[in-house]
Structures are given as C-alpha cells and as structure tokens.
C-alpha cells in the first residue's frame, strides 16, 4: 500500500526561525524543522513534503493543490494568518483534508490578538508552546494514527 502523504505548511515569517525573536521562537531553523519532521514521517513509514510562504494566496493555492495531489494530512503553522485568515480556513473546509495546527510559542500566554484562531475549531488538534518539537510531535501523531484517504 502507498505511504501516508503528509504536507507541512509554514506561513509568514517562519522562514526566519532561528534568528527571529529567539527568546520566543528558539534557535532551531526552518531547515532543522523540515529535517526532523521528514525523519519523524519516514520513521513511521510516511512521506513528507514541506512548503513555506509569506503570502496568504500562495498558502490557499497550496492547500487546494494538496487535494489534487492526494495528500492525506496537513500539519500547518499559519503564523500570523492564524489570527486573520478566513481564506485559509475556507481552503481547509473546501478540501476536507484533516490538519493539525502547530504554534511554536504558547499563543494563549501572549497578546490578546493571538488568542483567537480562525482554524482551531476545524483542526484535529492544536499544539502550542512546545517549541519546534511541536511540529515533530504533530507529524509523528499523524504518521502513526491517520489513515490514507483514498
Ligand atoms: O508568526 C507567528 C508564529 C506563531 O504561529 C507561533 O508559531 O508561535 C504564533 C503567531 O501568533 C505568530 O504570528
């Protein structure tokens, strides 16, 4: 049987992980994150493709493409679009691909505008505040428990 296919999406400014506000986001880079997530997926027999964009429309396009590509699950850190994007919410509703929302920081312990997410009520799970380890835990969970969709 074909391997479970996972898409990892990172939104705006997450390309700056490692140098961006290290007291909030730590010192690991996005490359480190992709490497550890690829390993976590492979260790559980799944495949992982990673995508990062600073542009809302590009993220919407990538979520729509995921359906055409037969992606089984998405792990996403939408960055600031978490708190603003009806378009990304609608993209998830449109494709129906199950997803886990990840935040490096504990958004609930930060400014009030970070407490609301346009995605959380549609996510399978939300991980916030476990640093970049949260990505790996999400990928491992998906790889071990999610089923192929088609
Ligand atoms: O860009 C980000 C990163 C973030 O999603 C996190 O990973 O903690 C939290 C968001 O509020 C912020 O805009």
TrEMBL record:
GO terms for biological process: 3,4-dihydroxybenzoate biosynthetic process; quinate catabolic process. It comes from the Eukaryota. Keywords: Lyase, Quinate metabolism. The record marks 20 as: Transition state stabilizer. One of its GO terms (molecular function) is 3-dehydroquinate dehydratase activity. SUPFAM superfamilies: Type II 3-dehydroquinate dehydratase. It catalyses: 3-dehydroquinate = 3-dehydroshikimate + H2O. The active site is at residues 25, 103. Pathway: Aromatic compound metabolism; 3,4-dihydroxybenzoate biosynthesis; 3,4-dihydroxybenzoate from 3-dehydroquinate: step 1/2. Substrate binds at residues 77, 83, 90, 104-105, 114. PROSITE patterns: DEHYDROQUINASE_II. CDD domains: DHQase_II. NCBIfam families: aroQ, PRK05395.1-1, PRK05395.1-2, PRK05395.1-3, PRK05395.1-4. PANTHER family: CATABOLIC 3-DEHYDROQUINASE. Belongs to the type-II 3-dehydroquinase family. HAMAP family: AroQ. Homododecamer. Adopts a ring-like structure, composed of an arrangement of two hexameric rings stacked on top of one another. This is Catabolic 3-dehydroquinase.
């Amino acid at each position: 049987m074909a391997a479970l296919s996972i898409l990892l999406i990172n939104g705006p400014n997450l390309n700056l992980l490692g140098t961006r506000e290290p007291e909030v986001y730590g010192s690991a880079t996005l490359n480190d994150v992709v490497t550890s997530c690829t390993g976590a997926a492979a260790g559980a027999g799944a495949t992982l493709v990673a995508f990062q964009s600073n542009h809302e429309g590009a993220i919407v396009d990538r979520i729509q493409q995921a359906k055409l590509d037969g992606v089984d699950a998405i792990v996403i850190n939408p960055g600031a679009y978490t708190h603003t994007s009806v378009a990304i919410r609608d993209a998830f509703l449109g494709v129906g691909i199950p997803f886990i929302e990840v935040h490096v920081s504990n958004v609930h312990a930060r400014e009030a505008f970070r407490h609301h997410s346009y995605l959380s009520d549609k996510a399978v799970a939300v991980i916030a505040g476990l640093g970049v380890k949260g990505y790996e835990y999400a990928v491992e969970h998906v790889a071990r428990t999610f089923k192929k969709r088609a």
